[in-house]
Amino acid sequence: MADRDVELLAIGAGPSNLALAVALEELAPDLARDSLIIERNKEVSWQPGMLFPEALSNTSFLKDLVTLRNPRSRFSFLNYLHATGRLDHFVNMGSLTPYRAEVADYLRWTARSLALVELQYGRQCVDIGPVWTGGTLTGWTTTLADGRTIGSRYLVLGTGRDIRIPEVLRAVDRDRVVHSTQYQKRIGGLRKDLPYRVVVVGGGQSAAELFYSVQIDLPECRPTMVMRSVGLNCYESSKFTNELFFPSFVDEFHASRPEARAQMLAEMRPTNYAGVAPGMMDSLYRQVYLDRLSGRSRLQMITMHDITSARDDGDEIVLELTDWRTGAIRELRTDLVLLGTGFSPQMPWAVRRLAERIGLSDVAVTRDYRLVVDRPSTAACYLHGVNEQTHGIADSLLSVMGNRANDILRDVLTGDHLDLTPVTAPAVAAT
User: Fold this and answer.
1) d(CA 358, CA 350)
2) Beta pairing, strands 149-157 & 222-226
3) Are strands 35-39 and 118-121 parallel, antiparallel or unpaired?
4) d(Cα 113, Cα 74) in Å, to the nearest integer?
5) Ranges of H-type helices in 64-141
6) Residue-wise pLDDT tens digits, 250-291
7) Handedness of CA 214, 219, 221, 225 (dihedral sign)
8) Which of 31, 51, 338, 361 has its CA 20 to 30 A from that of 226?
9) Residues of the signal sequence (predicted)?
């Protein structure tokens, strides 16, 4: 017996599960009262490492948790602005994209505004196991770090992807390696007056923001940006390709052949990965230009190089850089490595672990994001934000969250989860 039983348990109080909580409150109040969200942090915390004062969201404020599903919702970003007394100022700014710090505050406001769905903080999930009754999957048991357990019929995983740390850097001193998700906290603990040598790894938006911000946060540092690409490029952001981020495009993408999905993802990659927002690109180039004009030679960019090895040497890290054009090798010594390397394309650890517990060799989901279990089941598990290969490039973004919450809730309420015969769906390797 679990210490507590609920009908629906959602793990992680990020945007995905907050969108689900809003949908529950608006569309299924009875189920909402028997639903629980658990969050390991002490508050809703969205991209805390990258909440730079001037960082803008790349997504329109209209693509919030609910507006594309229900424009009249009290949980909209516009209502948040009204409730906090900032609507006039935001409208006067004349921008579709809010500051990232505003989005983070909107998510906290949404969590505080929930009236039916319970949200508990400081509850870390350490294990999830299936409950079998006579060979039928009938529920889930979630174990928390304090040893307590929560039983549920429905389980929704919204923990996000695992951070990506290049294999070559995993053996060096982790105190000197900082992923972008940890930047604000880790850099805030360093002395500001020391001439740190800093290497920023990556060629996308995160790396660009790290390179820009570290010059302000550590004013005496000497940053070097290392990337394997030929140089920084802006996001491809035409209004035509942006239509592939519409919630309505998910149906079209999901119905396509696997090889067609792969081609679409490859062609859409410059719209979301390995690109830099135009405003950041301009600011970054001005930094480099002024550095050259002043003669300081403080800033350096090394393009078309791979990091082929790394080692600790006393109080510094030594990186081996290989020029992929010529094969020439050089050493770069640094005090600190900042990683703008994003997130692993693999299924998150929690999902892979759960698949093992069920006995699945592959992770696959239905169109409504339900984990496919090849045995009879009256329970269901849903996966947020990790289904890019089957649901499109917008899957991890705010663009589809309100509609995805509606899809999941509809699947629960219509009883489509009552799978008494095995279900098949396009497989995604669980590696």
Assistant:
1) 12
2) unpaired
3) parallel
4) 9
5) 77-83, 87-93, 100-113
6) 999 999 999 999 999 999 988 888 899 999 999 999 999 999
7) positive
8) 51
9) none
Closest Cα to residue 382, out of 343, 422, 410, 349? 410
The answer to whether 35 touches 7, Cβ cutoff 8 Å, is yes
Reduced to 3 states, what is the DSSP secondary structure of residue 65?
coil
Token code pair at residue 306: 């791979």
Closest C-alpha among 332, 319, 234, 327 to residue 283: 234
Nearest in space to 196 (alpha carbons), one of 176, 221, 171: 221
Q: Which residues contact 200 (CB under 8 A, 6 or more apart)?
A: 207, 210, 211, 214, 223, 224, 225, 226, 338, 340
Which pLDDT belongs to residue 422? 45
419 secondary structure, DSSP code: B
Ordered by where they begin, the domains of the chain are 4-162+344-429 (3.50.50.60), 167-235+275-339 (3.50.50.60)
Whole-prediction pTM: 0.92
